[in-house]
Amino acid sequence: xxxxxxxxxxxxxxxxxxxxxxxxxxxxxxxxxxxxxxxxxxxxxxxxxxxxxxxxxxxxxxxxxxxxxxxxxxxxxxxxxxxxxxxxxxxxxxxxxxxxxxxxxxxxxxxxxxxxxxxxxxxxxxxxxxxxxxxxxxxxxxxxxxxxxxxxxxxxxxxxxxxxxxxxxxxxxxxxxxxxxxxxxxxxxxxxxxxxxxxxxxxxxxxxxxxxxxxxxxxxxxxxxxxxxxxxxxxxxxxxxxxxxxxxxxxxxxxxxxxxxxxxxxxxxxxxxxxxxxxxxxxxxxxxxxxxxxxxxxxxxxxxxxxxxxxxxxxxxxxxxxxxxxxxxxxxxxxxxxxxxxxxxxxxxxxxxxxxxxxxxxxxxxxxxxxxxxxxxxxxxxxxxxxxxxxxxxxxxxxxxxxxxxxxxxxxxxxxxxxxxxxxxxxxxxxxxxxxxxxxxxxxxxxxxxxxxxxxxxxxxxxxxxxxxxxxxxxxxxxxxxxxxxxxxxxxxxxxxxxxxxxxxxxxxxxxxxxxxxxxxxxxxxxxxxxxxxxxxxxxxxxxxxxxxxxxxxxxxxxxxxxxxxxxxxxxxxxxxxxxxxxxxxxxxxxxxxxxxxxxxxxxxxxxxxxxxxxxxxxxxxxxxxxxxxxxxxxxxxxxxxxxxxxxxxxxxxxxxxxxxxxxxxxxxxxxxxxxxxxxxxxxxxxxxxxxxxxxxxxxxxxxxxxxxxxxxxxxxxxxxxxxxxxxxxxxxxxxxxxxxxxxxxxxxxxxxxxxxxxxxxxxxx
Length: 766
Known about the structure:
- The chain is an alpha/beta fold and about 775 residues long.
- It contains 26 helices and 17 strands.
- The chain has a six-stranded mixed sheet with strand order 6-7-5-8-9-10, sandwiched between helices.
- α2 (about 70-75) runs antiparallel to α5 and α10 packs parallel to α22 (about 565-580).
- It is globular, with a radius of gyration of 27 Å.
């Protein structure tokens, strides 16, 4: 069990890198008092993770010890539940905002049917306490797990496990001795530094084989005519890539977070301000021409655009549609120059939604969280700069945007390169790229820093993993990674998850004993590619040297999603437009001086931006960058309505609270003021969400658009694109609507949903 080399820690010390909320801390302390030695907080985890052993505190805490003959005898007489542990990851919104903990049962391997049934039961218990009563649920979930296991597993389960355990312990001894006898030199995992060549090679291979991360339809199209059969297995399994398959198993509201990474002075804070548009400089991230302008992470609410179904609902609905945050009418994917941009993820998302009607798509603005962290410097994984504190800040991000200084005018530390100016640049056409200002090299070392961070975390536990391979799965679960994603990545690099989990991983010992440093680097690189998709935001595109650097990057990394942008230009245009001095829309290819503005400096700046940014690049690129990043790991966007014929929204019943940064009071007030307009609301859900999950979101703050108990759900039938794995499983009851089962998966083909409820439930009367 992955309690760390130092064992459990006391609850008040909690987690290094993740601070429990006051409500969570209170629950942690209560659980520690109840379960005593069977309770622990998992140390050195970037998330708040707790573990409860489902056994009497007087039993041996490690029944699988090598010399556990006496413990095995006790196990044989124990209830089946005593063999299991319950791991819970507590999201920031648990329990006050209705977010449920991620629950994992570890112990003897159960059949898939039993595991699914158990986890569904525990999720229902958690939802009853958190979603309906706003209470912590861990104690109730633990007791429910004990009862379920003792009721549903055979009476001789413990005795059978004890017999197998003694046998597997003997195999562990023999195989472990054989492993250690292979070499008398210090093992590679005890080296202080990773092999730099192996790091570079693993990252390059993961980038070059991006094909395994593409959605099924796009992967099949890319492989057409090449004879490449590498995607056949994934296509047969449902046409999903590894991250997509893992996300499709997740449920509930998705509070989407875009994390910003990059070296100091690359323009991260400018991009943060351009996307979040704070009302004044005091509210925004600090911007200055020196390194480490940002020290503590800063989170703000920004907006991305997503494809809207209005074009598929008829001209009357389209003419009356009024989203809460509006559309971005100037946004046009067709203006992105493919020599300077790779927006394939957003193009694929749009095509999967509306098929051949891409030109007609309406782009809806939806709120997301944007997190700006301190600049990354070489050696951060060793503690330089803000070190691992910076890296831990990224764990809650859904995707990452690497803001790259494409001008080549700053070195690795973010310091200005002598002799380089924004006007003339360094390495411009006809010049040479001098040391200290190479954006392509910046992309490489930033990824290496993140890679080394994860690699070192795993490497320090590798000796323990070789002895007990089942621990390997736990080592990747702390980065807010769904268990399904970890399993998919392990299978992708050739490890059998079944062998890793069965009998503490005895069947995988031979494989892991044969692994060298290169194998672990490949695993880490594959994990990072799946867990943290990265968009390259090639900033300062308006400088003289930037176009050449951007073309070099695109030629060297053709598979990498990338957008040329000028964050500072977007920030200036939006700010002056809000002051009434400039006429400008998000992502527009031009701007003009507002009527009545006679400020000559504003006129000069508008003319300059039209000439150097908006005209040549088709826009500032800021909105395109953040939206393409979201499309790399797209949520299910669901549109709840009160009437499927008119698509009018549900009435706002109250001024809801509790939505945090993304869905707070301002949206609730606007919703109440607007009334039930057409297609007013869009809810970002995790891709595996169902009508039951949507109902749970809509009855609780901050939405509170429904009250009562779920009766049934219906959806408008939309003619979607190629996303075959998304869509209703129900049969259309008319030409325009279909009845949804409570557990149907919500996708674009059934994203306009009406949920019918009965009278107010008992739990809602208190």
